[in-house]
């Protein structure tokens, strides 16, 4: 764990205590548990239904937003192949060689997991649920819920999301999972049995009043921009661009910048047509992954195989941690080639609204 200042709103058992406690999950995979077929079912389910003139900083944000939801290359019209499409095809096949489909590599993944405890980390939006215009309606399918439930019967399973933890729980509705909301700044484990306290970790709790204030200010300042939406994710705030005419993106980004001038302790990251305002603390989905591995008793263990599946720029922090540890698998959900620290990929068949 990092040595950063940590504050919590509720009692937090130290990682060591969590390590010594009776684990919620068995430390080794039960012999009878058909883990890999279940994992394969989840991967299949993910492929099938996740188908869902300005200042420098403002231009950078707007460029990042444009790049965050790239259009897949259109197939060439029959009998009229174009050089541009051939180039895109080549890029795609090179990228697919570097980041092969997780489905096609199932045997290899199975070999890697031999004798190890898999811990499953799943991003929510764009991974378990399709990308839709209205963030309040990003529901996951019953088939996806069943696949995640099956996996969680055998493996410690964590939902890692930029969303407010309570909101993502209202979508997923599986009490047996760990939830890391607000980009990992709000971590809660399942209710423990035998009198054990559940894990709760909130490293940015001192920012709650500021986040609430900035949410209200951003809502007020952006209300005249048609389609703009500000979402309160508790320890971070999302400003949505998806339903805003692209001609007004610079104007919206400027409003965000103007508000943030008053908040030097906040920073902005970007996701899929969304700017995310968050505390400057050194905490992200990668740190959350490390914290959870430690809490589960796998701090320096070679006996664990963390698997992280995500689609967004913010998931790169977790992919990077896995790459640097030389341990585990990052799986990027993306239909288009993209710079990534993930090892494998999954297709995203129907991102209807980009
Ligand atoms: O970490 P994630 O679980 O991927 O959450 C990241 C953001 O996801 C949501 O926004 C994205 O999905 C919306 C619904 O499909 C879509 O309308 C939006 O354009 C996407 O950016 C969520 O609403 C944000 O608060 C999260 O930060």
Automatic annotation (TrEMBL):
Pathway field: Glycan biosynthesis; trehalose biosynthesis
Disordered: region residues: 1-30
Keywords: Hydrolase
Single GO BP term: trehalose biosynthetic process
CDD domains: HAD_TPP (cd01627)
Cofactor: a divalent metal cation
Top EC class of this enzyme: hydrolase
InterPro entries cross-referenced by the UniProt entry: HAD-like_sf, HAD-SF_hydro_IIB, HAD_sf, OTSB-like, Trehalose_PPase
Chain coiled-coil ranges: none
EC number: 3.1.3.12
Stretches with biased composition (Low complexity): 1-19
Catalytic activity reported: alpha,alpha-trehalose 6-phosphate + H2O = alpha,alpha-trehalose + phosphate
Molecular function terms from GO: trehalose-phosphatase activity
NCBIfam families: HAD-SF-IIB, T6PP
Function: Removes the phosphate from trehalose 6-phosphate to produce free trehalose.
Similarity section: Belongs to the trehalose phosphatase family.
Protein name: Trehalose 6-phosphate phosphatase
Organism: Colocasia esculenta (Wild taro)
Lineage: Eukaryota, Viridiplantae, Streptophyta, Embryophyta, Tracheophyta
């Amino acid at each position: 764990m990092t040595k950063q200042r940590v504050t919590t709103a509720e009692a937090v058992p130290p990682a060591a205590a969590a390590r010594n406690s009776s684990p919620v999950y068995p430390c080794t995979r039960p012999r009878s548990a058909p883990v890999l077929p279940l994992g394969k079912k989840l991967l299949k389910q993910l492929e099938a239904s996740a188908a869902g003139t300005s200042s420098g900083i403002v231009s950078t944000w707007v460029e990042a937003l444009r790049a965050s939801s790239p259009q897949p290359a259109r197939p060439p019209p029959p009998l009229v192949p174009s050089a541009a499409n051939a180039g895109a095809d080549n890029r795609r096949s090179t990228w697919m060689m570097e980041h092969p489909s997780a489905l096609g590599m199932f045997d290899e993944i199975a070999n890697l997991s031999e004798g190890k405890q898999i811990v499953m980390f799943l991003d929510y939006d764009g991974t378990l649920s399709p990308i839709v215009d209205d963030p309040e309606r990003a529901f996951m399918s019953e088939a996806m819920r069943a696949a995640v439930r099956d996996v969680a019967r055998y493996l410690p399973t964590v939902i890692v999301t930029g969303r407010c933890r309570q909101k993502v729980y209202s979508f997923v509705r599986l009490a047996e999972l760990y939830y890391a909301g607000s980009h990992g700044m709000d971590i809660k484990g399942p209710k423990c049995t035998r009198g054990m306290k559940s894990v709760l970790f909130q490293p940015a709790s001192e920012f709650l009043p500021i986040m609430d204030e900035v949410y209200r200010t951003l809502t007020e300042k952006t209300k005249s921009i048609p389609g703009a939406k500000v979402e309160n994710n508790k320890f971070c705030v999302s400003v949505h661009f998806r339903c805003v005419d692209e001609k007004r993106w610079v104007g919206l980004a400027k409003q965000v910048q103007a508000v943030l001038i008053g908040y030097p302790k906040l920073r902005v990251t970007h996701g899929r047509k969304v700017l995310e305002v968050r505390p400057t603390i050194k905490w992200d989905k990668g740190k959350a992954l490390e914290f959870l591995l430690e809490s589960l008793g796998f701090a320096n263990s070679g006996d664990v195989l963390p698997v992280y599946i995500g689609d967004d720029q913010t998931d790169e922090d977790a992919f990077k941690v896995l790459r640097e540890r030389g341990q585990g698998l990052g799986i990027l959900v993306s239909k288009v080639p993209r710079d990534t620290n993930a090892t494998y990929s999954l297709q995203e068949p129907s991102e209807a609204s980009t």
